[in-house]
Amino acid sequence: NAGVTQTPKFQVLKTGQSMTLQCAQDMNHEYMSWYRQDPGMGLRLIHYSVGAGITDQGEVPNGYNVSRSTTEDFPLRLLSAAPSQTSVYFCASSPTGGVLDEQFFGPGTRLTVL
Amino acid sequence: KNQVEQSPQSLIILEGKNCTLQCNYTVSPFSNLRWYKQDTGRGPVSLTIMTFSENTKSNGRYTATLDADTKQSSLHITASQLSDSASYICVVSPGSNDYKLSFGAGTTVTVRA
Fold it and tell me: In A, residues 16-35, which contact B (CB 8 Å cutoff)?
């Protein structure tokens, strides 16, 4: 199993550009989520999904969109990139999102917005 | 607001030495606490999980403790190795099933030969 995969690993955007960060998992997990990690701060939840066709907002959803058409894929779209979105983005999955579930994280995407 | 505070922010130790990392939280109600290890350029990986009734949990040279009354946890690394150089993140899960985990900012450990 590849686990959780993310592409690209690095990306540089100009302010106002849009892009999609890809995330896929092959563990048949129902729960998937996106986090951003900034220096000196804990990971913050952007959006999450408890199954195909179901998404919800996390702590910092503004400027990001998600969709979940399949169990495997959970892409994150930046609508109009801003310098404040410079961060490292992690996708994670767990079997159901239950409180005892372990989160399995992807390798991350380092995004720089100029 | 639920918070998780970790200390120290960073530390440097010599190979073979021990160290202890601290985590204080205010999350309530509380379900469980996990310690994750994050290598540079990688995603976090779970080391241990402790629920309300557990006081200690070991995973090889890593030993985690939990005092749910004082809302404190620690992670002890014994006989450190160069491969222990990483960031260690404390993550608290609330008692409610609202999918909202609380993450500490992490402690960066550097092990030197």
Answer: 31, 33
Determine the 3-state secondary structure of A85 from DSSP.
helix
- What is the full DSSP assignment across B3-33? -EEEE-SEEEEETT--EEEEEEE--SSEEEE
Percent of chain A past pLDDT 70, that is, above it, reads 100
3-class SS shares of chain A: helix, strand, coil, % to 5 = 5, 50, 50
Nearest to A25 by CA among A91, A77, A88: A91
Give Cβ neighbours of residue B69 (< 8 Å, ≥ 6 apart): none
Spatial distance between the Cα atoms of A110 and B55, rounded to a whole number of angstroms: 37
Q: What is the DSSP letter of A84?
A: G
Q: A18-41 pLDDT, tens per residue?
A: 999 999 999 999 999 999 999 989
Q: Which residue of B has its CA nearest to A41?
A: B105
CA distance to A47, B5, B44, B78, per residue, from A76 (Å): 9, 29, 19, 40
> What residues in A contact B8, CB-CB < 8 Å?
none
Average pLDDT, chain A: 96
Closest listed residue to residue A49, CA positions, set A20, A71, A16, A24:
A71
Alpha-carbon distance of B92 to B26, in angstroms, equals 9
